[in-house]
Specification:
It comes from Sedimentitalea nanhaiensis. With about 280 residues, the chain is of the alpha/beta class. The chain contains seven helices and 14 strands. The strands form three sheets. A ten-stranded mixed beta sheet has the order 1-2-4-3-7-8-9-14-13-12, sandwiched between helices. Strands 5-6 form a two-stranded antiparallel ribbon. A two-stranded antiparallel ribbon has the order 10-11. The longest helix has 16 residues. The protein starts with a helix and ends with a helix.
């Protein structure tokens, strides 16, 4: 929790009337930090509070995420600020991508450090509570969430990746336990549950998605979750399973769709997030 103590001390040094005075936020004007930028949307009457940081998929952007009014309002209507950082193009002229640990070490930025800088800035200028942060992400953004949960578990209160997991070589262990809700489409062919290989003729390299089930097995070990059956339910086309763990929290939601977010995803992850402290 040393990182969060640092953020809180930093926030106390900023006058209260500066919290919402920045000329940034929304889809049109990004907030600039070291090595990158992010977009943010805050609820009406915001006086500080919890936040969701959402990592876009391959080729996406934080501006596109914040520009989706219905997506944003699902978070802000429940009192959450929505933070949407921008990934960098992984090479000149290439799409934006996160520096996921996939064995291909050519990414232009250390995104663990970048995301820490984004959070520190949001705490300082928008009064975001770092102890009530949920990190979410879709596809490659979801893979970055897995990496953050594994290698920087102190970053957020909880992690909710969707349609993305570890890449090979998969870590043998993580820095510590974490609270995770993973959401995946049973018919996902882009990031299959069992993983797949992707070959680049241009760069003569093959990268491999790890098996989602093996990733969950790693989290069961890290969180000390018994392998025996635990609570589960099927409703609205979604199968939910929760393990009873000694440390952290672990849950899985499988929907019948393909590579995408299921209907009601926002409510699902926020309900789960809020249940962690009950």
């Amino acid at each position: 929790m040393m990182f969060h103590r640092f953020l809180l001390i930093l926030a106390l040094l900023i006058p209260a009337d500066r919290a919402l005075a920045l000329d940034c936020g929304g889809a049109t004007q990004s907030c600039i930090v070291a090595d990158g930028e992010y977009h943010i949307a805050i609820p009406d009457g915001w006086q500080g509070g919890p936040a969701v940081m959402h990592l876009h998929g391959y080729g996406g952007s934080g501006a596109k995420a914040i520009g989706r009014k219905d997506f944003v309002e699902r978070f802000t209507s429940r009192g959450y600020a929505l933070i949407a950082p921008n990934a960098l193009p992984w090479d000149e002229g290439k799409p934006r991508d996160w520096a996921v640990r996939d064995g291909w070490l050519i990414y232009p930025r250390r995104d663990v450090l970048f995301l820490r800088a984004v959070l520190a800035d949001a705490v300082m200028h928008f009064d975001v509570d770092p102890n009530r942060l949920l990190l979410t992400g879709f596809s490659r953004g979801g893979s970055m969430v897995w990496d953050m949960a594994c290698h920087a578990p102190d970053f957020a209160r909880a992690y909710a990746p969707a349609a993305g997991g570890f890449w090979l070589p998969m870590p043998e262990n993580c820095t510590g336990p974490a609270s995770i809700l993973h959401v995946h489409g049973f018919a996902d062919a882009t990031v299959p549950l069992e993983g797949r290989s992707i070959h680049s003729e241009e760069y003569e390299i093959t990268i491999r998605q790890a098996d989602i089930w093996e990733g969950l097995q790693l989290w069961r070990r890290e969180n000390s979750c018994p392998s025996n059956p635990a609570e589960h339910e099927i409703s609205d086309g979604i199968w939910r399973k929760r393990w009873k763990c000694e440390d952290g929290s672990l849950a899985l939601a499988l929907h019948k769709g393909k590579h995408g977010l299921p209907p009601g995803w926002t409510s699902m992850v926020l309900d789960w997030f809020e249940s962690l402290d009950n």
